[in-house]
Amino acid sequence: MTHSCLICHAPYHPIVTWQHVLTLKNLDILCEKCRRSFLFISGEMCESCGRPFQHLDSSYRQGPVCTDCIRWQEDDDWKDVLTKNRSVYLYNDFMKEVVSLWKFRGDYAIVKAFEEDFSREFFRHFDDTFLIAPIPLSTERLYERGFNQAKALAELLNLPIHDILTRHHHEKQSKKSRRERLQTENVFQLAEPISLANQRIVLIDDIYTTGTTLRHAAKVLLEADAASVSSFTLARG
Amino acid sequence: MRFILENNRLIPEPLAKVQGKEAMPISCFEHLPSFPVHPHFSFSTELLSFLEGKQLLLDELPFPIELIHAHYEQGYVMYKKGITKTTKGYRCERCGNEEAHLFASFFCSRCQQPCPYCRKCITMGRVSACTPLIVSCIPVRGQMYDDALHWHGTLSSGQQSAAEAVVQAIEHNDQLLVWAVCGAGKTEVLFPGIHRALQLGKRVCIATPRTDVVLELAPRFKQVFPHLPVIALYGGSEDRGKTAPLVISTTHQLLRFYKAFDVMIIDEVDAFPYSVEPMLQYAAEKARKEPSSVIYLTATPNRQWQQDVKEGKRKAVTIPARYHGFPLPVPTFEWCGNWRKAVKKQSLPRNVLAWIHDRLVGGKQAFLFVPHIELLEKIVAILKKLNSNIEGVHAEDPARKEKVAAFRKGELPLLVTTTILERGVTVPNIDVAVLGAEDRIFTEGALVQIAGRVGRSAQYPSGDVRFFHYGKTKEMMAAKQHIEKMNKEAAKRGLLKTK
């Protein structure tokens, strides 16, 4: 039977293997070409932020850690705020296009394409004892988009989701430099005053670019006594 | 956004004064009330001119909801449902999509409930069950331009009779197909008709499936209508949000229009994606006023249309001769055996290689059309051994523009291409060959267009058109007959130069 690819809408024949027949594994909702264009982060990576070392100039690396993470660790305000980050895909041109269609154009259904990989990779690095907290959008941005992409990702995990954070409205992050981003006040707050004592938390977001957003959110959680805060994102910029 | 129905009026939720009434997505209301135009309302010219002839989302309107809503209450603006329910499922009112697999649903932060949306036209902004389409109730009025046309060229006699038919169709809000051979000069054929339309205060749109054609046509029209506002619309165009008496647009951008044009000219009506995409045909239909004229232009109408013309069911005018008056080069067929097998062995059939060799030695540039991208890459690799300047282009090639430009400058002796270059590219003095002309992708239309690349300039009006094949197809025969028929008709009507 001919299907139509969830992303490119081209007709295709899904590949059926013995695995599909024997284990009820779902047939791919993407054509082979789109599926192959998602590249996993694999091989050596920064043990802190999950940045792949492949194709990275060696001057950006010191042993097991990248120089960005060293910079974070050298800053007393940000040292150890984020325990670690892991991401599923490389943020390549294809991924940028897909994310833009999904998040900015608002084609919510695309989230389905990430489901299997996102869930499998999550459980490679974390487990169900972690508390899942999606990075929130501001009320204004949420209205504009219609849905929160981080929450849509968190829902793929089939674990309880904790909306413990809220976010102020600010101008778009992407228009600022790293320094500007660091200096801005924290846009996150606790949704309600609670104690997170002994809780290990995983923040869920779509892209890890500089890690500033995630660290701002993590800081708020640590101030509420969280034991640790890590993050898991769909792509690593 | 949700609405509240109060005293038979829709009120956007944020503007509702009475609390407690149930707010609902617009698609949930059975009947959408609208009001007669209040003549003494001091309307916003900016808003109405922005909305003129359009059908837009609230997100596309840079005006506060209070202002938009005031215009609704005074009868100047209408709210329409973006998505309607049908017996089978849903229908997108902007793009006409009704295919179940092109709708999806999400829990919407705007209406606080599961909200179906259209995936088909999502790149133009999301239309969902809680999305109102905003439409102006004021009919589009044109301005009269008496002598907008500043063009001093002359039309060939074939062009002249077609141009007269176009004028007639525009005056009588009629339908017309202009079937003009490749190189007939169909753009000029439009000048008198558009001139007449502007005199009558009609709004004109020239729509084409392809952005590069918009970019090519816009400066041309700006030049011959120098004092007329002309805008060009395509994805990312700066003219977005403007209106003008003459609009040159991709068929895609017509999705934002509504009852806007008195004259709709659709260029390359048989070209991809317009020909296979009902959404674009719906968009073009919706953008037309009632009544209005529609002019279709093409060198290669599909078989159904050819049949309709033959039976007199479709009004048509043909221009069977090129503007320079020389006949169209007729393709010759040449059997080349199992060329796919040869390609697998890193080689090409002997006669194909000989043809290419002759062009390289003779210094005459040529296009070689091949059926698919994968084959193209292999063939280019083979030919690069003959001459390293040989290049290949296909739809997804990022260097496509650069390579075509280099070919135009004469820097490349041979360009191997997929059907992507079958239209629009005109380079003087070239030959053309098709390898694998029997492939399904080479339809009659594609082959006629490909043959139409040759002999375009008056200086070099002839050239070789060779179809290398592994078995003749009906499409190949039809293409040849099509070309010969045009030449015959041109001769009969005395449109060809006599030696």
TrEMBL record, chain A:
Q: Which SUPFAM superfamilies match?
A: PRTase-like
Q: Which InterPro entries match?
A: ComF/GntX_DNA_util-trans, DZR_2, PRTase-like, PRTase_dom
Please, which domain of life does this record's source organism belong to? Bacteria
Q: Using the record's annotation, list all stretches that form the Phosphoribosyltransferase domain.
A: 145-236
Task: Give any Pfam family that matches.
Answer: Pribosyltran
Q: Which family does it belong to?
A: Belongs to the ComF/GntX family.
Protein name, entry field: Competence protein ComFC
Which organism was this protein described from?
A: [Anoxybacillus] calidus
TrEMBL record, chain B:
Query: Which UniProt keywords are listed?
Result: ATP-binding, DNA-binding, Nucleotide-binding
| Any GO BP | DNA replication initiation
Question: Which InterPro entries does UniProt cross-reference here?
Answer: Helicase/UvrB_N, Helicase_ATP-bd, Helicase_C-like, P-loop_NTPase
**Keyword Nucleotide-binding applies:** yes
Q: Describe the location of the Helicase ATP-binding domain by residue ranges.
A: 167-319
One GO MF term attached to the UniProt entry? hydrolase activity
Q: Does the keyword Nucleotide-binding apply?
A: yes
The Helicase C-terminal domain sits at 352-499
Q: What SUPFAM superfamilies does the record tag this protein with?
A: P-loop containing nucleoside triphosphate hydrolases
PANTHER family per UniProt? COMF OPERON PROTEIN 1 (PTHR30580:SF1), PRIMOSOMAL PROTEIN N (PTHR30580)
Protein name, UniProt field: Competence protein ComFA
Read off the lineage from the record: Bacteria, Bacillati, Bacillota, Bacilli, Bacillales
